[in-house]
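Hey all, quick one. A colleague (J.T.) asked me to put the flavin-adenine dinucleotide job into the tracker so the inputs and the structure tokens live in one place instead of scattered across chat threads. No bug as far as I know, just bookkeeping. Sequence used:
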Amino acid sequence: MVDLSVKIGDITMQNPVTPASGAFSWEYNDVIDLNRLGGLVAKTICREPRLGNPTPRMAETEAGIIQSIGLPGKGIEYFVDHIVPEYAKFKPPLIVSCSSDNISEFALLTEELARMPDVDVIEANISCPTRNLTGQNFAMHEDYTSDAVKAIKAKCAGKPLWVKLSPNAGDIVSIALAAEAAGADCLVIANTFLSLKIRTDNFRPALGNKFGGLVSPALKPIVLRMVYQVAKQVKIPIIGIGGVTKAEDVVEYMLAGASAVGIGYAGFRNPTALVQIIDDLERWCDERGIKKITELIGAVKDDDMEMDPLVAASHGV
Amino acid sequence: MSLEHCEKYTDSALRVGEVDRYPQRVAGEFIGEVVGNDWVNKEYKHLILKVHERALAAYAGQFFHLLCPTPDGAEVWMRRPMSVYRVDKAASQLEFLYKCEGRGTRGMGMLAKGDEFNIAGPLGKGFKLDPAWKNIVVLGRGVGLATLAPLSQLAAEKKVGVTAILSARNPDVVMSKDLFDSLGAKTLTVLDTDKTSDVANVEKIIEGLIKEKKADAFFTCGSSRLLKLMQQLGKKHGIPGQVAMEQIMVCGVGACYVCMRTFEIDGVKTLKRVCRDGPVFDMQTAVGW
Ligand SMILES: Cc1cc2nc3c(=O)[nH]c(=O)nc-3n(C[C@H](O)[C@H](O)[C@H](O)COP(=O)(O)OP(=O)(O)OC[C@H]3O[C@@H](n4cnc5c(N)ncnc54)[C@H](O)[C@@H]3O)c2cc1C
Ligand SMILES: Cc1cc2nc3c(=O)[nH]c(=O)nc-3n(C[C@H](O)[C@H](O)[C@H](O)COP(=O)(O)O)c2cc1C
Ligand code: FES
């Protein structure tokens, strides 16, 4: 049987399937066995209590949903006292996503989280497109990314720092390089795509916060391209997030260079999807005699591609 | 090209008779078989599904999250929340009463006998009956009646008397009367067409029930106007109550914070998740429906 385990730095995960931050909580334990997941990823936490954005927070489009939640939460104290213990009941490593729009606050929050023995990884969400009305965030710019990641890294107390990037940045490769240089131990690619829906019945934006993040399986090829491009340039591991709905999508992300994936939407569509994808992944590898899933990482065959169109078109598909 | 590249989603739901790998989970994903899907009137349909036994644990006020087909062949991206209308344990059947409105519910309307339908649940916190209550008043309008109907099943089991006031635009869209009647509830229909559904008249009816000691608790769903009335009467006479709320949902299990509504507790306004903290809430805490 295939060994599905992967290593992200010093963290070993029993398989490469993790939930995506904000699309998951310990409450999913009602439906699936959380101990089967590669990791547990908590919703992005902010230091201060936040109500989040006005409703409606979700609208359907032709090809996916747009959502704008606005990082609601009861603040760091409540998180430490009530939410971390819920996650601590399960075995997979706990990855805690955190956010702020102010670098010194961000560092303070990181310090408070890194102190908790049950927190295994800090994931800096520097890319939430909907925490304010403009869609702006650190991950839109190399310099901001660098400053934020440096300050956060300094307060991680030796715990791994994963940095979640934005697909809305002009050139994600330079942002990725900036994050790596500033001390990121892993890159999470990517957050949601900034978008807008206007209702034609009342001329109003469909979401209470105007802009939302587009989530759709249709975005997988775009994020996959980003993962591929970044993987060619950085040395740290990558977690691919965007449009994974089945085991073959995990394979695809790994071939492009990701060490693991995050899954959001598929778990909404099919609440049992994550566990099913793990089962299917195991079967997929076994059927092909793959012994270790890590063999797939970056194994895309792109070095001997025929670039002459006339020659290429003379071959079979 | 191999088929592999065309397969789209995972299929992880439990079919009727299949071995349950996670029997200890309170909710699941199930494939129900359509037994019937008939029109009740011009706007509403009644869906009957044969389901895996674990899905039958649903009780009044809980809901399922349904993966609807579409009338246009394109994708419905989000599941649709739908209250459990009736649980028939003997026949292994779950029933839903729904209004054919938008893409999802019109898609549901196309389901035919023998079709498969993916549902997730049972989800949420439903109605609770305090053993001290001997008689309750149920007041609902429109779709809200589908949510309130199973309460009469629960009340009948606990030998609690039910007066159900069914509010509707016109006689054609009065629903659930038969179900309430068959479970021994006393039903009163109030209509927009003859103005009996006016708040003043409904208030008079409820005041009458209070005098007759037939109102130990109030239950409502489906109308802001009726919620306000019950809140006011509840406060005046010290009668407790519960309200079932609706909101657009994504996950249905409490993870995404999409389904928020405003509540006021001890003078402080706050947001709560309809899917997890509800859909049934203490009536006095609700700020609008
Ligand atoms: C807990 C709960 C129980 C419900 N029980 C019933 C029931 O028993 N019978 C019934 O007919 N209806 C019920 N509803 C309402 C039902 O969910 C909506 O009518 C349905 O989602 C509309 O989908 P659509 O595709 O037809 O409409 P569209 O207008 O195409 O829907 C677009 C989006 O808005 C959402 N939406 C639209 N109206 C509502 C609504 N009232 N509440 C929540 N989301 C909405 C949809 O889910 C979808 O995401 C319930 C809602 C909730 C939250
Ligand atoms: C409802 C919702 C809430 C989200 N909240 C967060 C969040 O708090 N922090 C974060 O980093 N990403 C958040 N995301 C983005 C997801 O983590 C993920 O990057 C995105 O959904 C793409 O993955 P998917 O295609 O598998 O859904 C959220 C996404 C959704 C749909
Ligand atoms: S629908 Fe996700 S929290 Fe309620």
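Adding what we noticed when we looked at it: Residues 135-243 of chain B form a domain with the Rossmann fold fold (CATH 3.40.50.80). The longest helix of chain B spans residues 144-157.
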